[in-house]
Q: What sequence folds into this?
């Protein structure tokens, strides 16, 4: 018979062994990072912070958004309002300090209202209403007003500090209980059998995590390191912007953007607060004069300053002397997606155009409204292949707005730049003259620019109307062989500007979207 002492001793030994094993396991594993692959504690996500295995975590998030700039922040708020559980990962949650993304066209403001975000671009960030443009060339100027007669008094463009606008949208998105906004750097998309399942990212402390969702939307901006996985990008860098802030001065035309057709390229002025005016000097090419050596200040004072309106001259010189000069490279990139189950590109990571016309935010917000409406009938996003097939319609349905704004930006930039080519010089002069005629000649192009009339065919017709107007100027008072030949070259030059841009946008999608099969895609049956 076994004595009870042996039984009790065996039990005590087993208990002590178990405790010892737990201590050893904790000690050895204590310094390892816990990843979502095996489950992790969700400290500030949805619910009570319970330990979630991989599959449960995947079910707890509907959409992962990479980036919380204009597109990412607006998208997070929009999808969360639709009831989606959203995890946003942004590299830097401090207020951005940029020199672009500061002017929202009226068409973009209408989209902002549709998304319920109009209070992010109001007096709380000292945003300014913009009612149109003033165009300057060789001492002459013409005012081009937005066609706002059929809209309420609140509808206009808005200009502001980009960082303030983004922070307000981030704050508004973060107030929603189904939004998790986290600072971190996404390094990789998680792919399994051709389907994107989520992302790998490092948080602010440098710890690596994985997060899963049925849909990952990449909005990580113009310097995206993820777009190459979801598209075939062809990025062009036509010029750089040099930015300054003019203080305590008034624009010649209040509440208007000012475009100076300078040499070698345009100069922009627009208000960004009640006391500040942004100046953007376009410098062709990929390099700008050195700031450190003083070449930049010299260039601005000797080349640019003599061409700006006299009312702004003293403030412009003072801004140069103050020394707070920033520069950035302008980029353009036609949308060329590679439809991938489980993922989508949006914003500047997907599509860029020259910022001369201030159309980027309008395109992004329009895309968000469209994507929201496409996703609205879907309660379940887990069928990645069916969802990908359905969302191919997004790429066609967005074309009226995006191709109009993209083509106009690219074409206007080339027309507005100075050129030694006489045909290009005539085209530039013709553009200024055509817009100065008033009526439909100014109303039409400005309605396209503002995002209020996103019709590619109207853009095409107005562009060649400018060219024909230029030829007409050359034929008066009497045509000559030299002038006739210059007129022919003008038409050829205009064609050389616009047709490559249209080709990049896609002729069929731009002008005949209803002939594209994806245009008619219906939501997957659920």
A:
């Amino acid at each position: 018979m076994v004595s009870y002492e042996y039984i009790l001793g065996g039990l005590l030994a087993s208990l002590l062994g178990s405790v010892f094993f737990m201590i050893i396991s904790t000690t050895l594993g204590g310094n390892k990072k816990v990843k979502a692959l095996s489950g992790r504690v969700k400290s500030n996500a949805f619910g009570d912070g319970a330990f979630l295995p991989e599959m449960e975590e995947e079910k707890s998030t509907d959409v992962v958004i990479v980036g919380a700039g204009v597109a990412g922040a607006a998208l997070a708020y929009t999808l969360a309002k639709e009831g989606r559980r959203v995890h946003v990962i942004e590299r830097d949650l401090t207020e951005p300090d940029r020199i672009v993304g500061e002017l929202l066209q009226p068409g973009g403001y209408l989209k902002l209202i549709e998304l319920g975000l109009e209070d992010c671009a109001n007096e709380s960030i000292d945003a300014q209403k913009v009612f149109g443009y003033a165009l300057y060339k060789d001492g002459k100027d013409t005012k081009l007003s937005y066609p706002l007669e059929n809209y309420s008094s609140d509808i206009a463009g808005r200009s502001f500090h980009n960082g303030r606008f983004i922070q307000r949208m981030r704050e508004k998105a973060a107030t929603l209980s189904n939004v998790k906004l986290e600072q971190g750097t996404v390094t990789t998309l998680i792919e399994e059998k051709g389907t994107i399942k989520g992302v790998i990212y490092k948080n602010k402390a440098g710890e690596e995590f994985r997060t899963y969702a049925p849909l990952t939307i990449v909005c990580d901006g113009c310097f995206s390191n993820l777009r190459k996985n979801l598209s075939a990008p062809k990025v062009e860098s036509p010029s750089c912007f040099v930015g300054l802030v003019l203080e305590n001065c008034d624009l010649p035309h209040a509440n208007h953007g000012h475009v100076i057709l300078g040499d070698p390229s345009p100069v922009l002025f627009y208000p960004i607060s009640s006391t500040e005016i942004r100046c953007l000097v376009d410098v062709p090419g990929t390099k700008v004069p050195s700031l450190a050596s003083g070449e930049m200040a010299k260039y601005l004072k000797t080349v640019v300053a003599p061409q700006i309106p006299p009312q702004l001259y003293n403030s412009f010189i003072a801004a140069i002397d103050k020394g707070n000069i920033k520069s950035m490279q302008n980029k353009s990139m036609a949308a060329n997606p590679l439809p991938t189950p489980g993922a989508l590109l949006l914003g500047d990571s997907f599509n860029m155009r020259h910022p001369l016309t201030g159309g980027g935010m309008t395109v992004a917000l329009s895309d968000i409204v469209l994507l929201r409406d496409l996703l609205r009938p879907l309660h379940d996003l887990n069928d990645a292949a069916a969802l990908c097939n359905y969302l191919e319609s997004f790429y066609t349905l967005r074309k009226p707005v995006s191709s109009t704004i993209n083509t106009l930006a690219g074409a206007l930039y080339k027309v507005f730049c100075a050129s030694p080519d006489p045909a290009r010089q005539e085209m530039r002069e013709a553009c200024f003259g055509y817009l100065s005629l008033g009526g439909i000649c100014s109303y039409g192009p400005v309605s396209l620019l503002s995002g209020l009339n996103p019709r590619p065919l109207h853009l095409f017709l107005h562009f060649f109307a400018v060219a024909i107007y230029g030829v007409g100027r050359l034929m008066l008072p009497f045509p000559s062989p030299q002038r006739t030949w210059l007129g022919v070259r003008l038409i050829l030059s205009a064609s050389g500007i616009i047709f490559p841009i249209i080709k990049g946008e896609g002729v069929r999608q731009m002008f005949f979207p209803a002939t594209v099969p994806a245009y008619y895609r219906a939501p997957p049956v659920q």
Q: What stands out?
A: The chain has 15 helices and 19 strands. Confidence is low (pLDDT under 50) at residues 1-56. The two ends are 68 Å apart (CA to CA).
